[in-house]
Amino acid sequence: MRLKLENIEFTLPNRLIDAVITGKISDPEIVNAINTLLTKSKVINRLRNPEKARAVKTTKTKEKIQNAVNLLRLQGKPVNAYQVAKLSGVSYNTARKRTNLIVFAN
Predict the structure, then answer these.
(1) Is the Cα dihedral 59, 61, 67, 70 positive or negative?
(2) Residue 47, helix vs strand vs coil
(3) Which residue, among 5, 35, 43, 29, has the nearest Cα to 17 in the 3D structure?
(4) Which of 1, 6, 26, 56 counts the highest number of beta carbons within 10 A?
């Protein structure tokens, strides 16, 4: 079964959330319910503060790459972007961009 939403039905939740965020709705019960939903939503938190989300993701990526480089050095394996990407779980292109974290010591 396909649910067909009209334009008003689709935009109403977004307008309601915007009204709560901007302070146009002051009913405490509605505001608390929507704020609870918003704080649980990771997507909304990323949209609210993209700089913080980007910084957290960058920090995690750097840690993954540094851990992979250290592990490869301990194992005596070659340290290159491919091996780092494979071991850390980041994409190959990300590993190549972060070559400042990867000192190629073979």
Answers:
(1) negative
(2) helix
(3) 35
(4) 56
- Six-digit token string for 81: 């972007």
The first and second tokens of residue 22, run together, are 């901007």
AA letter at 89? G
Residues contacting 104, CB < 8 A, separation 6+: 79, 80
Give the Cβ contact number of residue 79 at 10 Å: 19
In this prediction, the residues of the chain whose per-residue pLDDT falls under 50 are 1, 105-106
65 CB-contact burial (10 Å; exposed 0-12 / middle 13-18 / buried 19+): buried
**pLDDT tens figures, 51-77:** 887 888 899 999 999 999 999 999 999
For residues 25 and 12, is the Cβ–Cβ distance under 8 A? Answer: no
Global pTM? Answer: 0.55
Residues 6+ apart with CB under 8 A from 17: 34, 38
The token duo for 53 is 């989300």
